[in-house]
Amino acid sequence: MSSPPFCGIASFGRQEIRLTPIEGQSADVAVLGCPFDGSVSYRSGTRFGPRGVREQSLMLWGYHNALQVAPFDVLKVVDAGDVDVIPVDIAKTHSLIEAAASAWVEAGTTVLGLGGEHSVALPLLKAAAKKHGPLAVVHFDAHGDTWTEEYPGYPLSHGTPFIRAIEAGAIDTECYFQLGIRGPTYAASDYLDARALGAKIISADDVGERGVKSIVEEIRRQVGTKPLYISFDVDALDPAFAPGTGTPEIGGLTSREAVGLLRGLAGLNVVGADVVEVSPPYDPAAITSVLGANLAFEMLALMALSPSRKPPAGRA
Ligand code: MN
Ligand code: MN
């Protein structure tokens, strides 16, 4: 942190670059870029998401004042680089992401994925669930991403990762929250189908009406000590706060609501997370990349305060 944030090579949070686990050198968290955008339903560009987020992460000074924790001090965080995606093959790309994430998970390292579009959450969820079993999931999104098939005959896309993860047994459907849902859908059945799968839908309007505190209490009650995965599609936020994304929807969360909801999860057992759908080509003034970098920092703070990680000095 001695050089100014506009100097040097843009690793995430200016942390050590370590592309694969090294035996005998433990890491608590690996930030893993998944720059794939081959299955988006509208605007592309999230292949540049990890790069945009890394660049804006240079200004994460280190101390999280609201949660009173310095994630980079408490945790050994490494930047694991990017998975070598295959733009024309989503299935192969997913298997490469799952292999890369699994190598870290097996080494005892929590993976923080940077998308890429939301389909990359599927292999990340599977890698975490292989170790921890079915995961409680808090999924921020305007969209449920639980369509059976977005394109007939093609089960994998950024509209289907959560139904595929449920089918794979990676999600504990007793404990699956969708936060920020809104916007037009194909039919009323979109929400009904998601609910039938077990998703508890908390819309952006619900967040406005009920307030952050009541929602956080509900989630905490339900999650308890279960292993928790947080998947954050930045289009959960209003386009005013996240213009650089592929499928924007009006009437979304504010960035303050989003960080309030995340901070409310402090102390839960976070075993994996992702920040996805940041699309720098549609991102004036890097607004959404700044958001993505800071959401990732919020995730790191939650990991630092996770009961499975050592508590910071002076905090029980
Ligand atoms: Mn999504
Ligand atoms: Mn979305």
Account of the protein in words:
The chain has a single domain (18-304), classed as Arginase, Chain A, CATH 3.40.800. It has a 9-stranded parallel β-sheet, with helices on both faces. With 316 residues, it is an alpha/beta fold. The chain is built from 10 helices and 9 strands. The two termini are 27 Å apart. The structure holds manganese (II) ion (MN) (2 copies). Residues 118, 141, 143, 145, 233 line the site of one manganese (II) ion. The site of one manganese (II) ion has 5 residues, from loops.
Walk me through the topology.
Blueprint: E1 16-17, E2 29-34, H1 49-56, H2 71-74, E3 77-82, H3 90-106, E4 110-115, H4 121-132, E5 135-140, H5 161-167, E6 171-181, H6 189-196, E7 200-203, H7 204-210, H8 212-223, E8 228-233, H9 255-263, E9 270-276, H10 287-304
Parallel strand pairs: 1-3, 2-3, 2-4, 4-9, 5-6, 5-8, 6-7, 8-9
The structure holds manganese (II) ion (2 copies).
- Class computed from helices, strands and strand pairing: alpha/beta
CATH topology: Arginase, Chain A
Q: What is the domain tally? A: 1
Question: Measured on Cα atoms, how large is the radius of gyration?
Answer: 18 Å
The CATH superfamily bears the name Ureohydrolase domain
List bound small molecules.
Answer: manganese (II) ion
Q: Output the strand order for the largest sheet.
A: 1-3-2-4-9-8-5-6-7
Q: Could you tell me the strand content as a percent range?
A: 15-25%
The first-level CATH class is given as Alpha Beta
**Would you count the extended β strands for me?**
9
Helical percentage: 25-40%
Biggest sheet overview: 9 strands, parallel
How far apart the termini lie comes to 27 Å
The whole-number mean of residue pLDDT values reads 95
Question: How many separate helices?
Answer: 10
> Stretches where pLDDT falls below 50 for ≥5 residues?
312-316
Identify the overall geometry.
globular
